[in-house]
Structure formats: structure tokens, C-alpha cells
Specification:
Blueprint (H helix, E strand, L loop, with lengths): L2 E2 L5 E2 L7 E2 L6 E2 L10 H5 L39 H14 L13 E4 L8 E5 L13 E7 L2 E6 L16 E3 L8 H15 L11 H15 L5 H11 L3 H13 L5 E4 L8 E4 L10 E3 L6 E4 H11 L2 E2 L9 E2 L7 H13 L2 H4 L4 H36 L6 H6 L6 H11 L15
Helix pairs in contact: 3-8, 4-6, 4-10, 6-10, 7-10, 8-10, 10-12
Length: 434
């Protein structure tokens, strides 16, 4: 047995059974040791004559105090993520989880690999026992990495880890033309409303949109292309004062009320499944997938971004592997159809309103989502330039940024110029109303 001294050192107990006290550092006898007399003097006769009383045996020493349980051993090396993954997981949890996670030091962060048929890219992240929660934040989360995809699930959700495995559905992705079908559009609106109603254990500050655009913009301003065509395309884009245009967009959206909700942020046809056998069902035939960009964000961005997706077909087989038609942007009637079904999903909050009140809310949302549609163009335009530099996927990213296709920056800048005029109030079909 080792005895831990108060000065932090460790040693075997001395033969005298002495422990270092926590006071002034003087030696104190161990229990049951220092009170005994010398054995030889106990055996000496006291007086001659007469029977002597038997020697009293010393009381048995008290049982040793129970030792505190040892700390749990660290997970085996093969159950620990490599340092870079651990660092990224810590930063993600600190940024996206509220409460005690926000002030957590990296040395307090617990992470281990979850095994058992899922993937080596599934981790359990947890607070140490010494850190108390502040609100309703979870103490443990599951963090799953799919390349760049981050997906967190609270460990106290219903069902076991085994039940949280990915379900496989017989399904197909929607085509662009289907987005405008009234029944499809209505169900997408309902699904999005349900998504927006989720309460996720993430940081609820809407930092994602402009924080990500600022990061992309910094990369764009430093990017260097080797091929002459891309150099020319980038030069044409950089003739716009991108930092100034971003500030103009920020100023516009700061003056545009839009609630912060948990957003999908990439609700395009490729991320919506039509479930097999339910094609003719009135409802519950669709499923949203791919939550790579999901975060707390402005409601207007999620809906406005979806409206922009009506214009783009990514199933084109020739370069640049997409087609764009700005006339496919939803009409006011189509937008109101989507918005009314979205609002109807919040039954207790919307259905009890008068028709006049409903019309006012719908008109306000038209302005909201079409202004945020401009942010969709700007966001994905910057993203496209970054992807053109780093992605190995064969796709016309620079075309999307510079030629007015998906995420076309030129679709955004003219609208921002109009929006700087206080008198601007006319709809624009290419995404964005002022």
C-alpha cells in the first residue's frame, strides 16, 4: 500500500507507522501504534509475592479506513481519437453546446470512441463529474463525423445506441421540377416547420451565417488559381467590393425581423427523399436528410434558400453539371402557398388568428424570406469559389459563383444596390424581394 503525503509525494509506510500530518509537518503516530509501551518493561514483575494479575492485552487496532475508489482508468489507446480529432471535437462542443460547455477547459474535456457496428467516427463527449451543469444542457453527447459533417445527438434521447443506428430507407431524391408541385411544396413546408420547432442542445446565437461568410470571404481574398480561365473569372468577381457588399447585406438583414430557429440551411431537392410506396400518399411521403450545414440561424435564410433551389437542376450530365433558370424562382402565389402551409404547422399559434392577421404575417414573411434569399446567393457564391480551389469533385464551381447559376453572386449585388433605395418595394424573380 502506498501512502499519499500532504506534500504530494508518495512512499511506503515507515516501520514506525508514521504519517505526515497535514498541519505543521510534525510526525504523528499511526492509530494503534504510538500508545504501546516497550514490550520488555511489560514483562518485568511489579512486586515479589502474591499472584500478579494477568497482563492486559492491548486493544486490537481499528480497521483501516477504506481507501477512496481509484479514478477510472483512461480508455485504451485505441479508444482515444487522435489529437487533431480530439481538438476539433472540443472546439465544436465548446462552440455549439450551451451552459457549462462554453467555459470548459480542454484538459477537462472527456471524449472516447464508440464502437459496436456504427463507425470509428462516432464519439461520446462528456463533462467531467467535477463540472456542474448551468441549465438544461446535456452532460453527454454523441458526436458523429461524416467527413465534414458534424452530427450531435444527446445521449439521454429515447432508445439505445443500437437503436440510434442509421435507418436505411427505400427512397429516391426529388427532382428539381417536383419542388413546385403543390402537394410536394406543402409537405416540404410542414417538414421545415417541424425542423424549425426542434429544441437542440446547441448554442442558439445566430452566428453561423455571417461567421461562415466571413471565413469564406477571407479565404476567397487569398485564393490563387493557376489556370487562366479561373484567374479571369476570379478577377471579374473581385472587381466587386466583396467586403463592402457583405456589410451592405448585413445592414439590410439586421433591419429585417426573422426569428432564430434550428435550420437545415441546405434544403434542396437532393436533400429531400421521396419514400418508396408513399408517392401517392397525401402526407408523410418525404424525409429531410443531410444535416451538414444545420445550425441555429434565421428562419428567412432557410426558406429563402429553398426558394433559390427551385432554379437549379444538378442532374445535368455535361459540364458544368448543372442548369439554371431564374424564371423558375417561385411566384408570389407559389411562395404564399409554401408560407401558409409552413405557418399552418404551428396550429395553436396561427390557426386561431383572423384572416386579416394571417395575411399580415404572410406578407411580412414574403419580405423576410426574399431578403434572406440574397444571403443565400452570397453565402453559396463564396462557398463555390473556395470549393473550386480545394474540391476534387468535377463540377463547375466557378460557374456557379460568376455566371448566375446556383449561388450566383451577380444575382445578389444588383438587388443590394436596389435595396439601398428606401423606395424599393418591387419583387425580383431571380431570388430576393426588396
Amino acid at each position: 500500500m502506498k501512502t499519499k503525503f500532504c506534500n504530494g509525494g508518495e512512499a511506503e509506510p515507515s516501520p514506525l507507522g508514521l504519517l505526515l500530518s497535514c498541519g505543521g509537518g510534525s510526525a504523528a503516530p499511526a492509530p494503534g501504534v504510538g500508545q504501546q509501551r516497550d514490550a520488555a518493561s511489560d514483562l518485568e514483575p511489579k512486586q515479589l509475592g502474591g499472584p500478579q494479575p494477568p497482563l492486559a492485552l492491548p486493544p486490537p487496532p481499528p480497521p483501516p479506513l477504506p481507501l477512496p475508489p481509484p479514478p477510472p482508468p483512461p480508455p485504451p489507446a485505441d479508444e482515444q481519437p487522435e489529437p487533431r480529432t480530439r481538438r476539433r471535437a472540443y472546439l465544436w462542443c465548446k462552440e455549439f453546446l450551451p451552459g457549462a460547455w462554453r467555459g470548459l477547459r480542454e484538459d477537462q474535456f472527456h471524449i472516447s470512441v464508440i464502437r459496436g457496428g456504427l463507425s470509428n467516427m462516432l464519439f461520446q463527449c462528456s463533462l467531467p463529474d467535477t463540472v456542474a451543469t448551468i441549465g438544461d444542457e446535456p452532460r453527454k453527447v454523441l458526436l458523429r463525423l461524416y467527413g465534414a459533417i458534424l452530427k450531435m445527438r444527446s445521449c439521454n434521447k429515447e432508445g439505445s445506441e443500437q437503436a440510434q443506428k442509421e435507418n436505411e430507407f427505400q427512397s429516391r431524391r426529388l427532382d428539381t421540377e417536383e419542388l413546385s408541385l403543390p402537394d410536394i411544396s406543402a409537405e416540404i413546408a410542414e417538414k421545415m416547420a417541424t425542423f424549425h420547432g426542434m429544441k437542440m442542445p446547441f448554442n442558439k446565437e445566430p452566428k453561423w451565417l455571417f461567421g461562415t461568410m466571413e471565413k469564406y470571404l477571407n479565404q476567397v481574398l487569398r485564393v490563387k488559381f493557376a489556370g487562366e480561365p479561373r484567374v479571369k473569372q476570379l478577377h471579374r468577381l473581385l472587381r466587386h467590393n466583396l467586403p463592402l457588399e457583405l456589410e451592405n447585406l448585413r445592414s439590410l438583414l439586421e433591419s429585417t425581423p426573422s426569428p432564430v430557429v434550428f435550420c437545415h440551411n441546405d434544403c434542396q431537392e437532393g436533400n429531400i427523399l421521396m419514400l418508396e410506396g408513399r408517392e401517392n400518399s397525401e402526407k408523410q411521403k418525404l424525409m429531410l436528410i443531410d444535416f451538414e450545414y444545420s445550425s441555429y440561424n434565421y428562419r428567412g435564410f432557410d426558406i429563402g434558400n429553398h426558394f433559390c433551389e427551385w432554379m437549379y437542376d444538378y442532374n445535368y450530365e455535361k459540364y458544368p453539371f448543372f442548369r439554371a433558370n431564374v424564371l423558375k424562382y417561385p411566384t408570389k402565389k407559389q411562395q404564399l402557398h409554401f408560407i401558409s402551409n409552413y405557418l399552418a404547422a404551428f396550429q395553436n399559434e396561427f390557426e386561431n388568428l383572423s384572416n386579416e392577421e394571417k395575411c399580415i404575417i404572410e406578407e411580412e414573411m414574403l419580405l423576410e424570406v426574399n431578403r434572406f434569399a440574397l444571403a443565400s446567393h452570397f453565402f453559396w457564391g463564396l462557398w463555390s469559389i473556395v470549393q473550386a480551389k480545394i474540391s476534387s469533385i468535377e463540377f463547375g464551381y466557378m460557374g456557379t459563383a460568376s455566371e448566375g447559376a446556383r449561388w450566383g453572386l451577380p444575382l445578389c449585388f444588383p438587388q443590394l444596390s436596389r435595396l439601398r433605395s428606401p423606395a424599393c418595394s418591387t419583387p425580383r424573380r431571380a431570388g430576393g424581394w426588396c
